[in-house]
Structures are given as structure tokens and as C-alpha cells.
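Ops channel
N.P.: pipeline sanity check, posting one input/output pair.
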């Protein structure tokens, strides 16, 4: 028990280091915990502890720290079609002026699930999930295009989703 506590303390100390840019530095144990949770977000801390070589309490502390630092979230991921959202689209947006203010406005819209500022043909890409085509038209035409600074939009309507995974976090 004592050696487990010492191992837990030293592992937690290693995990708390942060590089100069303020981004949390993740050690192999934290990455392994994330990997375990990506396989099954409901996996018990005791089972994770056995897999990564820590006590249940140490895993619980590590997970809370990862959540507090914004490194990860634990959420239920739904298939939009099965919960009534039959139309998805990626919208490319060209902006005049401050790109960040447009990105912030998009982030506030409940239909917008993903916002990224880009370099290339578009200044911002936004993934939109809507109930139907009328809902999508309303969001694009009356809300996105109405934002001051939006110069143009181009919509890419999803016909079929072939792959959606969240396993990229530890590779």
C-alpha cells in the first residue's frame, strides 16, 4: 500500500509539470488513462487503475485533473439521425475584418457543433446539425449570413457519414 501511494504521488508530480506555453504536459500514464476512457467512457476507475498501474484513488485524481485542465471531456456521443437531426452540413465562411468575432458568434449558436478558424479558401469552417433542410436554410440564411463581417458562405451538405471517431487523442 505504501509503495502504491509513493508511486501515485510521484506519478501525480510528473503529471503536473507544464511547459512554458501553458499547455499541460501529459505523461504516459495520463495518456493511458485517456485511452482507457476513449474505449469506454464508463469504465470503472478500479479497472483503469489495474490497466495503468495506479490505485483507484490515483486514477480518480488524474481524471479530475484532466477534466479541470480541459484536456478532455467525458460525454455521451449520439448519432444525430437517431435523435431527430436529419441534416448536417459543413459551412465554409469568408470573413471581412475580425475572424475571431465571427467564430465567437458561431460558437454561441446551438446548431453549430464545431468551429475552426482556418488558412486557405475559407476563414472559418462550421459544422451545423439541424432537424431538416428548412432549419439548415434558416441557420445559414438568417443567422450566419446576417452576421456583420460575413462576406460569403459555401455549404457542404452531408449525404452520408462514413466515419466519426474520437480516438485520435493519444496516438
Amino acid at each position: 500500500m505504501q509503495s502504491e501511494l509513493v508511486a501515485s504521488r510521484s506519478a501525480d508530480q510528473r503529471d503536473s509539470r507544464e511547459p512554458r506555453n501553458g499547455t499541460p504536459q501529459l505523461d504516459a500514464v495520463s495518456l493511458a488513462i485517456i485511452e482507457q476512457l476513449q474505449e469506454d467512457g464508463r469504465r470503472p476507475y478500479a479497472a483503469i487503475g489495474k490497466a495503468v498501474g495506479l490505485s483507484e484513488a490515483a486514477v480518480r485524481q488524474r481524471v479530475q485533473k484532466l477534466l479541470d485542465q480541459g484536456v478532455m471531456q467525458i460525454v455521451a456521443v449520439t448519432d444525430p439521425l437517431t435523435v431527430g437531426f436529419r441534416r448536417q452540413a459543413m459551412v465554409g465562411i469568408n470573413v471581412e475584418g475580425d475572424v475571431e468575432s465571427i467564430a465567437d458568434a458561431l460558437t454561441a449558436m446551438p446548431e453549430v457543433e464545431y468551429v475552426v478558424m482556418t488558412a486557405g479558401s475559407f476563414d472559418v469552417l462550421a459544422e451545423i446539425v439541424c432537424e431538416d433542410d428548412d432549419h439548415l436554410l434558416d441557420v445559414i440564411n438568417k443567422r450566419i449570413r446576417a452576421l456583420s463581417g460575413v462576406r460569403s458562405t459555401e455549404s457542404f451538405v452531408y449525404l452520408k457519414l462514413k466515419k466519426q471517431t474520437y480516438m485520435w487523442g493519444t496516438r
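N.P.: looks fine end to end. Helices lie at 2-15, 28-39, 45-52, 56-68, 99-107, 133-144.
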